[in-house]
Amino acid sequence: MLKQITAIGLIGAVILVTMTLSFSNYLIEENVEEIDLIIKGDVIMPTKVSRPGCETNDNCYVPSLIVIEKGKQVTWVNEDSAFHSVTSGFYTAPTELFDSGYLDPFESYTITFDETGTYDYFCILHPWMKGQVIVE
Ligand SMILES: [Cu+2]
User: Fold this and answer.
1) 42 Cα: distance to centroid of ligand 1 (angstroms)
2) S-S: 60 plus which of 25, 38, 54, 106, CB 3.0-4.6 Å?
């Protein structure tokens, strides 16, 4: 009788531990996905940049200057609640090398830079938003 109770108790404990472990695995996986989402962006469009002001600290795109090696990618993520774009050149002189179009909140845009050079870009909706990619 005592052996049976012990055995049932053991089985119960094993089931409980297994359930706890699989639940914590689930939680860990969820967290990994969130971290992935954050890491994916090399350049962030933070909140409130749709109003002038970010240009005084040069943080409309963060970082506003990114230096990469030839052949590497840059991914922009719009973390604002407004639309933004990543458009090559300057507001008064677009170069038509690349243009993300309107990026929805939390939408991202990735470009591979195969040629060295300095690539200026801006936001077509907010002329004060400026950034630069240097490819070495
Ligand atoms: Cu914008």
Assistant:
1) 17
2) 54
